[in-house]
Amino acid sequence: MRISNPNDYEKTKLLVAVASLYYENNLSQGEVAKKLGFSRPYVSKLLAEAQNTGIVKITINDLTQSESRIEREIRQRFELRRAIIVPGAKVDNIQSRVGVAAARYLDSIVKSGDTLAIGSGTTIYNCAENVIERDDLEKISVAQLNGFLTESKQNVYEAEIVKKFAGALGGVPYILPMPVLVSDLTIKDHMMREQTISEAMQKLREANIALFTVGIFSTSIVLKRSRLFDRKRIEAMASKGAVGDILVH
Q1: How many domains does the chain have?
Q2: Which residues on adjacent β-strands are paired with residue 245?
Q3: SS3 of 228, please?
Q4: Model's pTM, two decimal places?
C-alpha cells in the first residue's frame, strides 16, 4: 500500500492499530472499540477496510502445517474438514473467544449466494457481534435455526442475532416467529402454514452453512433455564444416556 499524503498516513496508522489489536492481540471487536473509544460497527468497517486496502491479508495455509496435534486428531477422528481449538484459561470469557474465532472462520468461507442457518445463545451472539462487515457479497440469506425460548432468562434474542449476521454480510434475515416448543401438534401445523414461517423453513432447507453450539446436558442447561422441562424430566433423560443438547434437542 502506497501512502500519498499525511491524511492517508494517519488513516493507515489507525487501520494498522485496529487490525493489530483484533488479529494479533486476539481482542474482540467490542474490546477494540472500548480500548480505542470507537463504536463496534466503526471497528468492523475499519477491519474491512484493512482487508480491502491490503493491510491485512488472510491466507489459508495447508492444514498439515498450521493445525495443532489435537486439532488434527479431532479432525481425523470425526472426519471433519477443519477443527479449531480456542485457547483460554479464563472460563468467564471462553464464550467470547469462541465467538470471535467462529466469526473469523466464517469470514474466510462465506461467499455470494450462501444461505446461513443461525442458532442462538451467548456464544453465537458473540460471533454475531464480531462478524466483519462485508460489502462484496451478494444474495446472502440468513435464517433462524430454532424457535424462541419463550421463558428463557438469557438476554440473548434469536431474531436479534439473525439480524446482526444479515446486517454485517449485507444479507436478508428470515425470522421464525414461533416458540421452540408448543403444547399441541395442531398448533404447530397451523404455524407452519404461515407465510413468514414457511419462507424461513424453506431457507433453512437451502442452507449450506450452519452455525450452532453443542451444550452440556445437565440441570443447568438451556432446557432447564428456559423452563421447557423440569428437573425430574431432565434427570430421566440423563438416565437414558443423554450427554448434550443441540438446538434444544
Answers
A1: 2
A2: 215
A3: coil
A4: 0.72
Most confident of 40-44, 204-208, 234-238, 244-248: 204-208
Does residue 199 share a domain with residue 177? yes
Mind listing the pLDDT tens digit for each residue in 33-52? Answer: 999 999 988 999 999 999 88
Among all chains, which residue has been given the C-alpha cell 432447564? 224
Distance between CA atoms of residues 248 and 151, nearest Å: 13
* Res 19 pLDDT > 80: yes
3 state DSSP class of 144: strand
Check if the beta carbon of residue 213 is closer than 8 Å to that of residue 102.
no
- Going by DSSP bridges, is the β-strand pair 141-144/115-118 parallel, antiparallel, or unpaired? parallel
Are 44 and 168 in contact, with CB atoms under 8 Å apart?
yes
* Domain encompassing residue 102: 90-212
Distance CA 83, CA 188 (A): 36
- Residues 102 and 175 placed together within one structural domain of the fold: yes
